[in-house]
Structure formats: C-alpha cells, structure tokens
Design brief:
alpha/beta; five-stranded mixed sheet; globular; 9 helices; Beta-carbonic Anhydrase, Chain A; disordered N terminus; single chain; 228 residues
Length: 228
Amino acid sequence: MHFKRSGIAIYALILFLFIGGSGPLLAGELPGSSDALKLLKEGNKRFVEMKLQHPNETIERRQDTAMNGQSPFAVVLACSDSRVPVEAIFDRGIGDIFVVRVAGNIAVDKSVIGSVEYAVKYLNSPLLVIMGHTECGAVKSAVSGHAAEGQVLDIQKVILPIVIKIRKDRPDLAESDMLNVAIRDNALQAKADILDKSSIVKKMADDGKLKIVTAIYDIKTGSIEWIE
C-alpha cells in the first residue's frame, strides 16, 4: 500500500511538472484578438486619464504565473525608449503582455522575430501590436542623415530606406512633418518585415489565429493612435 501511494505521488509530481512547465496549459483561456485589443485600448484610456487600476499586480498573480506559466493575451513589439513603458501604457500587469523591445521597433533581427514567433506560436497570444512612438531617436537619426557610430549604424541603415522612399514619393512634404511620417511608415514596415520573414506569423495571420495591428504612442499625451 505504501509503495502504491508513493507511486501515485511520484506520477502526480511528474504530471504536474510536465504540464505546469508548458505554461499556457494551466493559465486559463485567452481572450480572442478583438477582446485583447479592447483590453489594451481600455487600459490606455485609463493611463491617459490617470485612472489606473493596476490589474494583475498582486502576490497571487505573481505566484500563479510562477507556478502555472504565462499566457499573455497580447504581444507588443516596441522601441526600447525609456519613455515607452509598455505595461504602464496599457495599465496591465504580470503575465498580460509579452513585450519585445528593440531600438526603432524594427523587425529584421532573428532574435526579435523569433521572440514574436515564440509568443504567438507557443504561448498562443492572439494579438500582435507593432508600436512606434513620437520623437523616436532611431527614426530621427535616419531622418537627420548624420551617420551614427558603432552598431547603432546598423539600426539606422534599416530605417534609412524608409526615409529615402518618403522623400522620393512625397517631395512636397514639409521637413517638419518628415519625422512623424517616417515613424508611422517605419511601424508599417516592421509589420511587413515580420510577415515576410516569418512563415509562422504569416500562416497564423492568414488562418485568422493572429491579428496584427500597428500603433503610434504619443510620449507627451500618453495616447495611442491605432493603425488597423
């Protein structure tokens, strides 16, 4: 009898570790892409009005995600800029958003695209947001035409063709408007790059399992312009 109970206990432990380690299997049902986008929009509205609720910022939430894994309802590819605190912008908490950050929110590096793939494929996140922001230094660098130093130049080189194309296609565009247009087009280009370079993301989007939207965050007002 003692052996039988021990065997059951060991089996239960193995089953717990196997299932628990997989993350999303025990974390509950994810909202659909439309509901996920609604949650982000509602959270941003609270952030702009400073009526924050701080959901999922509890000891219980921290412990639950530690034991049962993560099931983020959205993936956000954003710039590394310190003025763009993603979870705060959307008034969300632990385990809600899978955040991928890189200067200029570009999507050409394998580690960036792989991170997005991991979230949508293995964590089943139904929504991908590619978010640029006003006064982006990486885009501003490309617009200025002054070559950056070190490996920052590699980031600049990714964005520069976007700026060149805007100048060619819109010769009458005022220089004062160039930065904002480039920021918007850079976010749209990141979306195109992910779809071009990731067969996983493209298939999930084509199959209706993933919604992809672009957005621009205003670092002054805290509000987001959604480009769907």
